[in-house]
Design a protein that fits this description.
Blueprint (H helix, E strand, L loop, with lengths): L19 E3 L4 H14 L3 E4 L18 E4 L6 E5 L4 E4 L5 H10 L4 E2 L10 H6 L15 E8 L4 E3 L32 E9 L1 E2 L3 E9 L5 H13 L8 E9 L2 E17 L4 H4 L14 E4 L5 E9 L67
Parallel strand pairs: 1-3, 2-3
Antiparallel strand pairs: 4-5, 5-9, 6-10, 7-8, 7-9, 11-13, 11-15, 12-13, 14-15
Length: 372
């Protein structure tokens, strides 16, 4: 039972201890547990992984509850490449879903929070967040299978129809939609969930910045908000004090503010497009850009292909080779030192290029190294 205690409770405490633990491996077993508990009026405490340790881990709130651990229900039933979704059980961790997608060579990404050991379903039902364009995890849930307190099975949305082909693709019902009743609630145990995935982009840019001046926070938030509203930044950026960010790493405890964001786009070949721009190109080694020249401000961005590798070195594409997903390209203003060409735009050294900014910033932001 020690595994199911609050990891931060004081030694000797038994305020949040369970009477027993059950680990069902099928929907039928979950039904049996709920019917028995309902008949005997025994409280249940259910979790997918139970690893949110800052909130008590897997320990029950009511002493003497029966803990229902769904860690053994860890199957990925389906990955639909055409419609970009997966159908999973509550014991599937973010690690598991990521590994399953990679092993099956699916060109899809899952949205991952800071720690990958948690349950995808558990995180989603608790309004969890990640950092891709699908970072609002509740919005990616499409189709729940729920065991109610009396042991009956309910399927939300189009799953209420027999042999439905759109259960995990269409998020509404004929008539009232009631999936929201099972988010942050104790009205039933979710045993399956459809989760929408992100199509793997051809290229992406992982951008980060660090600055010391508190006065820069307001203008920076205003600038990032506009870039999010117009669709330039489509992921959920992370901004925090004491947050030190770099490529593939994040540490806490330093001075100043850290910002992390991402841009996504399509690969562009420069053999045709480079000729359309007479501007002189500036080369930056290893696809790395230095951003910002103001005192106390630093930043960088790395263009990577969707498999995480750096683009191949070769001919130097200019900004006119950028391909916007909305099939239009308007003039942009970039971070000083970010543009590889004298005309405006985000670009790296090599053939793939990320999505450009679709607008010109309206005011200077020297604290962040942006200029209008």
């Amino acid at each position: 039972m020690r595994e199911y205690r609050d990891p931060y409770d004081f030694q000797g405490s038994d305020d949040y201890t369970a009477a027993a633990v059950v680990t069902p491996r099928s929907v039928e077993k979950v039904q049996a547990v709920l019917r028995t508990a309902h008949e005997l009026r025994v409280p249940l405490w259910t979790f997918g992984q139970g690893r949110n340790n800052a909130y008590g881990g897997s320990a029950p709130r009511v002493k003497g509850s029966i803990v229902v651990s769904l860690r053994e229900m860890n199957r990925v039933f389906e990955v639909n490449d055409e419609l970009a979704y997966a159908l999973i059980e509550p014991g599937v961790r973010f690690f598991d879903l990521h590994d399953h997608l990679r092993a099956g060579n699916h060109k899809l990404w899952a949205s991952i929070p800071d720690l990958g050991w948690g349950s995808v379903i558990g995180n989603t039902l608790e309004y969890g967040r990640g950092y891709t364009p699908n970072g609002e995890h509740p919005a990616t849930a499409c189709g729940l299978e729920v065991v109610l307190a009396n042991g009956e099975v309910l399927r939300t949305e189009m799953g209420g129809m027999s042999n439905s082909k759109t259960w995990n693709a269409y998020p509404w019902s004929f008539g009232p939609s009631h999936a929201g009743l099972f988010f942050q609630s104790n009205l039933g145990i979710v045993t399956k969930m459809g989760v929408w995935l992100m199509r793997q982009p051809e290229v992406y840019l992982s951008g980060f910045a660090h600055f010391l001046d508190d006065a820069a926070v307001g203008p920076l938030v205003d600038a990032v908000r506009e870039l999010m509203l117009d669709g330039t930044i489509r992921n959920l950026p992370l901004l925090g004090y004491g947050l030190n960010l770099g490529e593939g790493e994040a540490t806490f405890g330093g001075d100043g503010w850290g910002l992390r964001f991402a841009l996504y786009g399509r690969a562009a070949w420069s053999t045709r497009n480079t000729r359309s721009c007479g501007h002189r190109s500036r080369r930056f080694p290893a696809s790395r850009w230095a951003a910002g020249s103001s005192a106390g401000t630093s930043g960088a961005g790395v263009v990577r292909q969707s498999d995480g590798s750096l683009p191949p070195l070769g001919s130097d594409p200019c900004c006119s080779s950028l391909v916007a997903e909305r099939s239009t390209r308007t003039e942009v203003t970039s971070y000083p030192g970010f543009g590889g060409c004298d005309c405006t735009g985000f670009r790296g050294h090599g053939q793939p290029a990320p999505l450009p900014f679709p607008h010109r910033l309206s005011s200077p932001l020297p604290q962040f190294g942006l200029q209008a």
